[in-house]
What we know:
The complex is a heterodimer.
Chain A (H helix, E strand, L loop, with lengths): L5 E10 L2 E11 L4 E6 L5 H8 L7 E6 L8 H4 L2 E4 L10 H11 L5 H11 L12 H15 L3 E5 L7 H17 L3 E5 L3 H4 L5 E6 L2 E7 H8 L4 H11 L22
Helix pairs in contact in A: 4-5, 5-6
Chain B lengths: L19 H36 L8 H30 L5 H36 L18 H36 L1 H16 L5 H4 L9 H22 L10
Helix pairs in contact in B: 1-2, 1-3, 2-3, 2-4, 3-4, 3-7, 4-5, 4-7, 5-7
Amino acid sequence: MTPFGVELTDLSVRFGATTAVNGVTASITPGAITGLLGRNASGKSTLLATIAAFRKPTAGRVLVAGRNPYEDPDVTAGITLVREAGDYADTRVNDMLRLAAAVRPTWSPDLAEHLLSRFKLPTKKLATNLSRGQRSALGALLGLASRSPLTIFDEVYLGMDAPTRYVFYDELLTDYTAHQRTIVISSHLIEEVERLFEHVLILDEGRLILSDTAEGLRERGQRLSIQDLFVNLTEDTHGDAGMLAAHAPGTPGQKEWR
Amino acid sequence: MTRDLVVSPRHSAATTTAGVVPTARWLFWRLFNIGRWFMAIVAVAFLLVPPFVNALGGQLETSIWEMFATNGPGWFSLAMGATLVANYLTVVVAQGVTRGRFVLASALAIVVFACLLAVFVWLGYLLEAAYFRQFAWTHALLGDHLFTDASQALLVIAEYAARHALFALVGLIVGYGYYRVGGVWGTFLLPFTLVVPLAAGVAILGLPGMTALLTFGGIVGATPTGVGLSVPYFALLVLVGRYLLSTVPIRTKTG
């Protein structure tokens, strides 16, 4: 199945007086792994929820595979958003897998079976009774085994211990190599996941302040890791020091490496 | 692995559409898993009542199952309808199903579940009739029904299936209110999400005449006209539910 691309045009999401996402214009490359980075409350989760049609934008436009995803069943069937705490009901793990298998056109039962074993998940336990780490692992399983053309992991690692996180990263990379799709990973643990990124978007206070390839970032950062660059960049937006200046043309608030 | 940043997002969206029927099947089993306990508890409790009354030397003048069947499964269905939204909307949408399709799938699951509960009610009538015969009591019904005798299976099932479906579909609207604005404001919305649509539905079931509405909460009957008219009313409830839920932001659901 063709990976989905995403195009955001002047996208804003507001909750009353709070602007969670502010005029974001960006593209997410189809068939690549994109890292969405940002501090707490920078608008990452809201942006991802809007891309996944979990909510409507207040202003601007979201296109996934060239279409507005909101209530478009052909598009939403190809989007998987796995959120931090997981979206589970008081149903057994088995039942969650049955639902995914029933409605996900690209679901892989073999991969699901494999990941159940890798993550050591109990299938007969209620999803809501799983430990936090197991819930995260179940989310990772649902996201990976869906093999959706657009798969989004929003802080999915939270609660996982280090070995489980590395199982997740390895499985993600292995399956992505065999079944290329568009993957977006939102994470605080930048050092752990930056090796996966092909593109990086950085949000700060709801604004997109950087969009570039990971390779380009590393080249311009001169041996600095993406984590170092992220820290510099987000600190810079709150003060006047730093290595960044300029702005991408036509994108207010967006900065670019020089 | 770097790729050109200038990419076209216009890729084929020709995925297989997430189906209504598979979602409905999944939702039905969720309803069934809860409903089976309801039916088991009620069945055990009811099995004990007539023999208990008989053992005490008493006599039942009218059907107690009729009293229960008019209210118990209906309100239970309403709770189940609300539960579908509260418990499963987020979960199902997170699996790529649109809100609109969730409502259609819920309606389908509700109709099947309503029929299952109606069969249960019919079996209860049969059992009660058997008890009454055994104890030489008269099996009298108080309400206006499509049926005159418990052996008229299709009529019994049709009446109660319509009734249960009405309550459960109204439950979807109630669930919307709570999902959208939370517990406090959801309660304030009940006159609009519960009272008006349910009262209208009960009145329609009893048409012609308003006796059904006036005896709301008691032995409310149904007429052939009312059951027939309730079908388009159900369609209206589904459309309203679909319209309302299609606008709702998806909340985080962890249990």
